[in-house]
Design goal:
This protein has about 350 residues and is α+β, with helices and mostly antiparallel strands. The chain has helices spanning about 5-20, 75-80, 145-150, 165-185, 310, 325-330; strands spanning about 65, 85-90, 100-105, 140-145, 160-165, 190-195, 205-210, 220-225, 235, 240-245, 250-255, 260-265, 270, 275, 285, 295, 300-305, 320, 335. The structure holds zinc ion.
Length: about 350
Amino acid sequence: MHAIRKTLLAAVAVALALSMALLPGCSGITSGTPNVTVSASSSATASPLLASVGDIPAYSGAAYVTVNNSKPFFTADELASAAGTEVYGELDALGRCTGAFAIVGTETLPTDERGEISSVHPSGWQHVEYSFVDGLALYTRCLLIAYSLTDEDANECNLVTGTRSMNLAQTDFEQEVASYVRDTGNHVAYRATPVFEGDNLLCTGILLEARSIEDNGKKVEFCVFFYNVEPGVEIDYATGANKLAEAGSATYNAKLESGATVSGSQNGVTADGTPIIDESVTLAFTSNASEAAYVLNTKTGKFHTPDCENAASISKYNVKYTTSTRDEIVRAGYLAASCCNP
Ligand SMILES: [Zn+2]
């Protein structure tokens, strides 16, 4: 992946400014929150300062990087937008999201469960599964502004195709904002801008900016770029097409939306060092922990001795108890955990 250039961000800023100023069909569809105002007139929406972001470094293994010393680019006018403002930029000519801005407050928080969003197929969308991806699906419908903040569900102007890892990486930031608003009743200016290179249908990443209003950013302030990547998977951002990365030429099981499946296997390690498990090597499992010869962590690809205390703390979703031999486990691709060195 190339470094994202200043010019690209400038282009994004212009697109965002334009689309939000025009404020078309997608503007602000707020489900179940009657007090929310959708502002079209406020300059709250333009983001010319994105042009000064400068180069965002190419992905090098970290899920996100802070930008501009984590200082968001909101203008004074944007920060002065009315409480409850929500603006969702219109899709561009290629059907891509252009960004979303909100003044998040108690009045924008959801009051009910999130609705179904599977009807929306964001640009670059496809359903593909890899055995080593948390939850299996490579892509999720990634909300630009989280449901927990503005109660949006199937709003196509607020949903992009994002990798599982990118979606997870944003969670802490979204929760920080939601907790702050709930605990204080204060407001947070919040903007999510997907960054697309050229005509790519899959965004390179999302720039997330937030600043608490009443305390002038004392409690909440960040400006962070999240990479739309999944370790172990090579992604073609033009289309969203994907395959196992070279380093991880291993077990995968891609179920395409058409219903077709492709699969293959070979021992390997993903780009972040997680072993890829060869599921064609048959291991014997038991549900009785006391019978286990070894304990497997299917998420990290490590195996432990049954008496290792780290083995006891593996999530029930990731733990497997095996009666297979050490050789078989290693052949399947698991690595010995350094804590107990089984
Ligand atoms: Zn251990």
